[in-house]
Please model this.
Amino acid sequence: MNKKTVRDIDLRGKRVLMRVDFNVPLKNGVIQDDIRMRAALPTINYVLDQKPKYLVLMSHLGDPKKDAQKAKEKAGKDGKPFDEAKYIEGKHKMKPVVEHLSELLHRPVVLAPAAIGPDAKAIVDSLKEGEVLMLENTRFHKAETSKDAADRESMAKELASYGDVYVNDAFGTAHRPHASTETVARFLPAVAGFLMEKELDYLGKAIENPAKPYVAVLGGAKISGKIDVLQNLVGKVDALLIGGGMMFTFYKAQGMEIGKSLLEEDKIELAKKILVEAKANNVRLLLPVDVLVADKFDNAAATKVVMVNAIPADWAGVDIGPETTRIFAEEIKKAKTVVWNGPMGVFEMSNFAKGTTAIAHAMADATKAGAVTIVGGGDSASAIAQAGLDKQVSHVSTGGGASLEFLEGKVLPGVAALNDKA
Ligand code: AMP
Model:
């Protein structure tokens, strides 16, 4: 990585402004999973050990406007009352995050009532030597995500006024050019934290200089969410294993019947193109040979394993079958570099999670055999944690979208904005 990190800059006596990704799942004000918070602790503790004047932390927490809109529509459909203020209070306010952070750091953490504005400024100005402050959710301010550069700049300038140095450890949000992730870096010396460094290091190794055989496993719902990563990887990997909902569009592209399985009609041509490109690049593109089908989209549905050319008209494919699982696991275990993104089936339902869990185990086995194994965030990260194997792979990314964009070969704006090493 050619970006400066917290190690390259003197923090003693400095006012440090740090962007973290504490976008944790909250249910009625209770944190469901604190992986992202714990992942930022090494940087926070390092910064505090350098004896800065104070540390101001900032993060977004969900997307209040968008989330509330969705929840409101859902409540409307279900004929339930909807209290927007209460919903936002329980899902987007930093109070539980600050309380939990204080426990993790074994020290008090002050909460600011907003990210910018006179009240935020006043509380920042009142900070005493060595104190830690968390700003309220940055996305309560429209300017944070505004398409208008001037709006973002004005918010970024206010944020920059809180610090002498900007540290970005929010890998999970690095693919978004927001005021607190990108614009602010223009107004202060800007360096990466350790989590950012580690993410870029592992993902960088995978795209730049992967040990071969290099295998990518892609799953998840749709091709449309992964077009660019498919196209990028198809030129680089030795084998591409495809499972999840997206496999069915590939079958359709080969003229097969897929029953009631997920289909993206408008991506059939693209699937054909990817199949051709794989062949032209000598990439072995492996599609499942058997699938688990269900007669309903329900964990209690009747299920059976069928060969892919025998999916019954009224059934839907919900997981890869046992023979496919065996073939995929073999491929993974033979690899020296493996990148995995997206579940092999509807893994949220326990009866359709076998294929995904088996991939998690194969990743752990490959790691034991000396491979570099990378889990690309999001659902695959939940799946590997669910299997209790998250410590047995080389790297589990904290950023689903960000790791995908990185693997697509895109420059992440939050990374690009940081200062280069001399
Ligand atoms: P993505 O966000 O694109 O990685 O997709 C993740 C989602 O894909 C999960 O919620 C899975 O339930 C869903 N998924 C995986 N396999 C299938 C399938 N065969 N049919 C429908 N949805 C699937």
Notes: Residues 219-222, 225, 244-245, 262, 317-318, 342-343, 345-346, 348, 378-379 surround adenosine monophosphate (CB under 6 Å). The chain has 15 helices and 17 strands.
